Structures are given as structure tokens and as C-alpha cells.
Amino acid sequence: MKKKIIIIVIVVLVLVSATGGGLFAYQSYQNKKLVADVTSVSNLNMGYWESDTQSYGTVTNNISQDIYLDSDQTVSKVYVEEGQKVAIGDKLLEYDTTQSELNLEMKKLEIQGIENDITLGQRKLAELKNTTPVADTPVQPEQPEQPEQPAEPEQPAEPEQPSTEVVEEKSGDAYNYVSRTAKPYDGEGNEDSPYRFLCTKSAYVVGNYLNYLKSESKVAVFEIREDDKEDGTLISSWTVNGAAMEATDDDSKWSVLDRQEIPDEPDTEEPDVPDEPDEPDVPDTEEPETETKETYTAAELKKAINKQENDLKDLDINKRTAELELKKLEEECNNGVVTATINGVVKTVQDLNNLSNDGSAFLSVSGSDGLYISGTLNEMLLETVKVGQAITATSWETGATVNATITEISPYPNTGNYYGGDGNPNSSYYPFTAYVEDASGLSNGDGVQISMSTSDANVDSSKIICIDRAYVRTENGKSYVYKADENNRLKKQYITTGKIVYGQEIIIKGGLSLDDRIAFPYGKTAKEGVKVTDSDDSDTIDE
What are phi and psi of 496, to 5 degrees? Predict the structure, then answer.
């Protein structure tokens, strides 16, 4: 009986194996018969020529150029005087670039700090989005009040002990003093990525740490920020390059705020007692602490995600604002000369030896000749629209069209929710001024529609690849196409994509050339290894 069962099982296995092998062979045969049509990318390319962007503005003759000095800016020379007429491009003043160069380095560190905050914020947001909310905690019923217990008799107060003030190493995230035990919150200790320490306003650096920087040729930056927070506004920073410093006393103390050595206080302490001999180190056998993951209810998690997303938006705005300020500082360092952006008369110039501290402009030019157009730029256009670019404006009142030239773009965005043209209404908008050389048909106060080119002069539009989105597939956030390889077989080619234009086309920024041939990425022929045939002819390409 057992022999019969064994024989039956063997027969069944043989039949199953034969059937599976047959199916596999049949599938392989069918796959070999598949042929995919491919089309040259040059034939699919729609091309892309960016159209002019539209905005709105106002014609004005009441315009001025006001130059304010930051607290750390120094003017080395003034080229004009009150009452003098100036034209666009005339020199007004020149900065001492020594301080600007220092400010430039500080601004780079500030941007680096914002970028680090963005990275941490994005990591935190990803963690929140991957967090599973917990159930809401049920409300516990109120417990009946317990009868009051008789008060314990007061114990006699302990006699007060004389206090010995001990300075804690840190207050929150900020160091009160930096010694060899301190750990930077960022940086690798070199000139490109110095150690960064967050310090309180009263913080000091111990001499033994400065000597460590010297011995190891390390670079460190000691920062003081508002509210003693890493994301607070930078108040002061002290950069120490160990390779360029002199050795100091290990016990000395150096103020972070004024970078001066703090004198020792009179010694009123008890005479030193000989130290006890050090105990031998005992291996640490404690279990490592496990991080307790914060839990959220569904409502709390949604609120935390919204807050984190808003914080990242604020950081992004701060970064772009700082990058604009960086460009301004770079211009100051490269040249240092400020020129007139309008035609007019110098209204005020302060005395270099007696500067006002009431917040007024150091130098002001009042427009007196010609008309100007005041408008705004979407933040996304700041990389392509520059000072000196021509624009076209059409009056809503008269229909007259004039040409103008942008003479100034503010480094600071408008406040409030302003929306004045193409683009995302949630974006920031930056004021600009354009001079109208021939203002025929325009009057002060006219509203105008503005048109300006946003094409990048360095990009050859004829080489931009723009194809139908249907030819591009996306999986796990990565885009790819099916491309014919050198053996005339399909292979998956990952690509970099840009924005969607014309409603259905997508710009290809990398991974594909006009000479490549691609297939429609859906259907039974959309597989790697499938033979291809050009859709322009009916002949199948041999293996």
C-alpha cells in the first residue's frame, strides 16, 4: 500500500514539474516574440521657449533712492554732495570693504547654519510622517476628595550653609564656558567646516581649549544667538584659527563676546589640599540609555506635522533672504561702489564724522527727471531677471506701450500677502524699479501691465528636451523611460525631470539625449530585454 502511495506522489510531482517547465518555456517563447515600437526623442521633442512673464505695476515720478548703513558698514568715500544732479550709473559712495569681507564670512556661516537647520527639520518631518499615532487617553473619572490629614509639625530649619557658586557648563543648548569637554553642534574643525559652538552672552573659552585648537591646527567658531537657540538670529561670532594663534595659559579665560582675556578674581579660597591619588578607571558596565520615542495622538500628530512644515517654509524664506544679502555683500567686496539707480538730485548726505543714529538714510537721491515704473518680481524669477534687463509696459489708461530698463531690485521682499502677476500667490515678491527713457503716452499714477523675458541667456532653447508625460513613468519618487540600448533591447533609463509645461509635456533635464529612442512605457511590451523596432518603419530590428 505504501509503495502505491509513493508511486502516485512521484507521478504527481513529475506532472507538476513538467507543467511548470512547459509554462516557463511557453512564457519565454512569448517574451521572445514581443517587439516594442521605439521613437526617436528628437521626433518626440516639443521644444520649449519660455514665454514672457506678466506682472503689474504703477507709473510714478515720486521715487527716491535711499541708502542706509548697517551698524557694521563703513563708508570710505562719498562722491556727491547735497543738491548735486546725478544720472543712473553715477558713483554715489564707496564702502570700506574690510568689514564687508568679515560680514561676508559671517553670512556664509549663517547660511550654513540655516541649511543645517533645514536638514534637521526635514529629518524631523520624515520621522513625524512615519509615526503611528496612539489612541486618545480616556478621561479618568474624578476621584472623591480625601479628608484632610492633620498637618505635620514643622521641623526646625536647618542652618544655612555658606554657598559656593558653581558655573554650570551649559544653560540649555548654550555653553557658559567652552573647555576640552565641550562638543560642537556642527563642523569638522577645518576652515571650510569649522567647529561651531552655541554660547551664552557671558560665556568664555578656557585657555586649554584654545591651546588644543593650536596644537591640532583646528578652526572653531563661538556663536552668540538670540534666546540661546541654534536657530536664533546671530548676535556675535568669534572665529579662532588655531594655526594662526599664539599659545596661552591653560587656566586663562577668554570672553566670547569681546574676545578679551578675563582677569582672575582675587584668590580668597582656602589653601589647596593635596589631591588624593586617582582611582583606577573601572570599565563602564552600565546599559546604554534607550531613547524614548515621543508619542502623539492623531490630532497631535497632524498639528506637529503642520508646525514642522511651517517651520521649514520659514527656514526656506530665511535662507533665500540670507542668500540675497550674501550677493549684496559679494558685490560690496568686489567693488564697494554704490551707483545711482535713478536720475535725480542728491537730497541729503550725512557727515562721515557725525553720523546720525535716528535711523535716517545716510544718502538720499530724489527723482526729478523722467518717469519710472514700480513693480514686483516673484521670488522664482530672481535668478533670471537682473538689473539692466529690458521690460515692456502697457498703460491701462491710454494703451500706450513703452520700453523700460530695470535699475534696482530690492533684496528684501514685500511684507504681507501681495500678489501681482504670474506664479504662486503664496510666494514672496520683491519690489523693483525700472526707468522709462521715452515716456510718451504715460502719466504719473497710470497702472501698467508689465511683460519681461525670463529665459536664461546661457541656455540654448533649441537643445531643451520636452516630451509628452505619457512616455515617463515614476516609481518610488524616481522617473524613468524605456530606452533602446546598443543591442536594440529595451532597458530602464532613469532620468531627471523639470517642470510640466503646455499642460501635458515635461522637461527632461538629464539622462536622455535627442539621439536616444524610447518606447511607450505601458503594456505587455514595456519590459527590459524586449526587442525593438523603429516606429518610422515596419522592419523589426534583429537581435
Answer: -110, 125
pTM of the shown model:
0.38
Tell me the pLDDT band of 314, cut-offs 50, 70 and 90: confident
Cβ contacts of residue 90 below 8 Å, gap of 6+? Answer: 79, 80, 339, 340
Rounded-to-integer distance, Cα 210 and Cα 207, Å: 5
Q: What is the DSSP string of 248-283?
A: --TT-EEETTT--BPPPPP--SPPPPPPPPPPPP--
What the block records as the C-alpha cell of 105 is 564670512
Across the strands, what pairs with 403?
392
pLDDT band at 207 (very low <50, low <70, confident <90, very high): very high
**Nearest alpha carbon to residue 199 among 249, 164, 240, 246:** 240
Q: Which of 259, 278, 269, 312 is nearest to 115 (CA)?
A: 312
Sign of CA dihedral 292, 298, 300, 302: positive
Residues 135 and 128: their CA atoms lie apart, in Å, by 16
**Could you give the count of Cα atoms lying within 13 Å of 76 in the half-sphere of its Cβ?**
12
Q: Which three cell numbers stand for residue 35?
A: 517587439
User: Are the beta carbons of 230 and 113 closer than 8 angstroms?
Assistant: yes
The pLDDT-based confidence of 316 (bands split at 50, 70, 90) is confident
- How is residue 64 written as a grid cell? 527716491
What is the three-state SS of 338-388?
EECCCCEEEEEECCCCCCCCCCCCCEEEEECCCEEEEEEEEHHHCCCCCCC
Residue with cell string 505635620: 152
Q: Which residues contact 543 (CB under 8 A, 6 or more apart)?
A: 487, 488, 489, 531
pLDDT tens track for 131-184: 888 876 555 555 656 656 655 555 555 544 444 455 788 888 899 999 988 999
Q: Residue-wise over 489-524: b if at least 16 C-beta within 10 A, else e?
A: bbeebebebeeeeeeebbbbeebbeeebbbbbbeee
Q: If you count them, how many residues does the chain have?
A: 543
Extended strands (E) in 146-288: 170-171, 174-178, 195-206, 219-225, 234-241, 253-255
- Tell me if residue 81 falls in helix, strand or coil: coil
| pLDDT confidence bin for 50, thresholds 50/70/90 | low
Question: Which stretches does DSSP call E strand in 379-436?
Answer: 390-395, 401-409, 429-436
Q: Are 59 and 448 in contact (CB under 8 A)?
A: yes
Determine the pLDDT at residue 538: 45
Q: How far is CA 424 from CA 55, 157, 391, 417, 432, in A?
A: 12, 68, 21, 11, 18
Cα end-to-end span (Å), the chain: 55
What is the predicted pLDDT for the residue at 271? 52
For 370: left if phi > 0, alpha if psi spans -120 to 50, otherwise beta; the answer is: left
Q: What pairing do the DSSP bridges indicate for beta strands 195-206 and 174-178?
A: parallel
Alpha carbon distance 61, 47 (integer Å): 42
What are the cell numbers at 461?
Answer: 532653447
Tell the burial category of 369 from Cβ atoms under 10 Å away from its Cβ (0-12, 13-18, 19+). middle
The residues facing 37 across adjacent strands are 533
Report the amino acid identity of residue 536: D
